[in-house]
Design goal:
Sc_DH/Rdtase_CS, dTDP-glucose 4,6-dehydratase, NAD, alpha/beta, lyase, dTDP-glucose 4,6-dehydratase activity, 42% helix, 3-stranded mixed β-sheet
Length: 359
């Protein structure tokens, strides 16, 4: 059992990282301080955790995980005992167009964090990764924690490399680490380039719904709040040096998921599902598009007692409702207005002077 008190969360303004920060500040009374280190690039938004902006337990630091001096200073100033590492470039299409930034952030950035931890062996380091490191499955079978790595995109390869480096540092230097590999996440506050919010917003604006290839690629879907809870279980109770797969037990083809979204948007907006379905457009497949991912999450269920709280139908309904009710958040993301929010709310706090990358 570990009892984190002062936690450094990297990438805590991103989709999954912010869900974890909200989880910590909402539910975990034992946590005294959450330091959120985020570079605030295009997919990050402090608005994701704006409800805690004035909470004395929360500090937002605009900075780079590759800045070892900064990370070391934060560890000392805030007596950090646990680092949970979300920060990553994560969009597969972007990795195909420009892989070098994925190597710099996901591989080099992780190594620089590990160097800080190596100088502080009392820290526990949790590394958040993806099921994409395992490659593509056929129609049968599941990814387990011992599945051979076979990444098929620059993004997946960069995450695979970072996973190996975390394990290597733990083995070589005796660091306290845990790792997790998750399936596809969905839920509130997800950047609009990702599948679920993209489809919801396109339906609301009567824009085409692009479907790669034949639409029969299969993914397992996990609600982001369930993922946050799973990470807490691993951080506090997971065996040192071990990996846990986190899944939602909700496999769907892309077409099936899109039809579910169409039906739910139609139901909640009182529009025609047939009319929304007519917006579907089959487009050229993504290069190297993996056919199927599916997670075997028996280990985390058996050893740590974690099971997802959300079934897919209920989770999708709640997600659609959130996007319908949060048009202001969507507009601020699309316009880049969050930069003014940063200046107004964090200008006098522990934020660096670097300008966020425009969205």
């Amino acid at each position: 059992m570990r009892a984190p008190k002062n936690m450094l969360v990297t990438g805590g303004c991103g989709f999954i990282g912010s869900a974890f920060v909200r989880f910590l500040l909402r539910a975990q009374g034992s946590v005294a301080r959450v330091v959120n280190l985020d570079l605030l690039t295009y997919a990050a938004n402090p608005d994701n955790v704006a409800e805690y902006a004035t909470d004395p337990r929360y500090v937002l630091v605009q900075g780079d995980i590759g800045d070892q001096a900064l990370v070391a200073r934060l560890c000392e100033e805030h007596a950090i005992d646990t680092i949970v590492h979300f920060a990553a470039e994560s969009h597969v299409d972007r990795s195909i167009l420009g892989p070098l930034v994925f190597v710099e952030t996901n591989v080099v950035g992780t190594v620089k964090l590990l160097e800080v931890v190596r100088a502080r062996p009392g820290l526990h380091f949790h590394h958040v990764s993806t099921d994409e490191v395992y490659g593509s499955l056929g129609p049968e079978g599941l990814f387990t924690e011992t599945t051979r790595y076979q990444p098929n995109s620059p993004y997946a390869a960069s995450k695979a490399a970072s996973d190996h480096l975390v394990r290597a540092y733990a083995h070589t230097y005796g660091l306290s680490v845990t790792l997790s590999n998750c399936s596809n996440n969905y839920g509130p506050y997800q950047f609009p380039e990702k599948l679920v919010p993209l489809m919801i917003l396109n339906m609301l604006e009567q824009k085409p719904l692009p479907v790669y290839g034949d639409g029969l690629n299969v993914r397992d879907w996990l609600h982001v709040d369930d993922h946050a809870e799973a990470i807490w279980a691993i951080v506090t109770r997971g065996a040192r040096g071990e990996t846990y797969n986190v899944g939602g037990r909700s496999e769907r083809t892309n077409l099936d998921l899109l039809r579910m979204l169409i039906d739910e948007v139609a139901r909640q907006t009182g529009t025609s599902a047939d009319g929304l379905g007519a917006l579907m457009r089959f487009v050229a497949d993504r290069p190297g598009h993996d056919r199927r991912y599916a997670i075997d999450c028996d280990r985390i269920e058996r050893e740590l007692g974690f099971t997802p709280r959300h079934d897919l139908a209920g989770g999708i309904a709640a997600t659609v409702r959130w996007y319908l009710e949060n048009g202001g958040w969507i507009e601020r993301v699309r316009s880049g207005a969050y930069r003014q929010w940063i200046e107004a709310n964090y200008g006098d706090r522990d934020a660096r002077a670097a300008t966020p990358t425009p969205g």
